[in-house]
Design goal:
22 strands; 7-stranded mixed sheet; alpha+beta
Amino acid sequence: MANFAKPSVPRFSVDVYQNEYLPEGGREVNAIVTVTATGGGTLGGGLSPATSDGRPSAAVAIMVDCSGSMDYPPTKMRNARDATAAAVDTLRDGTHFAVIAGTHVAAEVYPGDGGLAVASPTTRHRAKQALRRLASGGGTAIGTWLRLADRLLSSADVALRHGILLTDGRNEHESPEDLRAALDACAGRFTCDARGVGTDWEVKEVTGIASALLGTADIVADPAGLAADFTRMMETAMGKEVADVALRVWTPVGTTLRYVKQVGPAVEDLTARRTEAGPRAGDYPTGSWGDESRDYHLCVEVPPAGLGREMLAARVSLVVPQPDGSAQNLGAQGLVRAVWTDDMTASTAISPQVAHYTGQAELAQVIKQGLDLRKVGDFDGATAKLGRAVQLASASGNADTAKLLSKVVDVVDAATGTVRLKTRVAQADEMTLETRSTKTVRVKK
């Protein structure tokens, strides 16, 4: 049984980067808000379930695709078993966990009693023994896997709940509406990292699962890489120390919050996920945090004001919403300002952070547009979009994305975005570019 103690969790800080100066009549305020969590703090307020070593208690469900396609090639199922075993080995003692076999139905593999096991040398050994029974056969209905994971994860009184999901195919045995309903039911209840193995799965399905459940998505084109990837995912999950953190944004009367986007380490539009949090305030979910830093882009429309006037355009803080409707404040705050001036130099300057992340968001967008146009045979349109992507990646120093783009286009001149579409592109290269298109780099110092 978990001990109840105040677990050690990161201290949060908020930094705001913007050009607060507007010309006369100016109305749009943009700011990059950097949220940083660093170790060594203590979460004040109410008590949270914790393990005996003071770390926050956690529960993890590993969902493994066991559909018939996992037998092609036969090594894929073996690699999936080995990867799941590696993930189980990475669980820290005291973590609640379960393994689920996913086909057109969801089945408990371990512990198999309708609940969760607690990680220890004995249960890890038993779980790896149970993995030997994993065999491929049947269809794919990912929504059923997620619902079983939710049921099992919710059976434990823990601070953090997380899923890892692996699939190698398309979600063909349930409707898109069924999957969407399952994601809606699970959102806010646990976070989930999703992985596609091989090249026969649907990128938009896997990235959509990770997006809805505030996790990461990636491709493992070669099944031999699964064990290393699962180990990294579980290590990251074990490093999380506080769950359900929300970005709370307050704006004054007369303003309109046009959007809130996470822009680093990946682009994720949070605007539609707002939940009201009192007069003029809304909460935007960010998921679980360990020792890390993330960047958010806020765009606020303010009422025009006369020269020399200034106003607070937005106030940003970090909270953990509580079941009773209250919120635990994590003690960090940032202010977004607006100042009207007739100094043209000041009012026309663009914050380097805002300019950089505006470009990174456009980069993600034009990659997706370019690949979609390529798939439907609009090669001129695809060339234009992917050329712009090469230009943006080069200008921002996003070397990883530039490298992925070079697998799809021949770069003639990166600075001008002059490219030629490759006539032959490996399926894995195209899917990797699409899956990782939202990953960003930080602004160059």
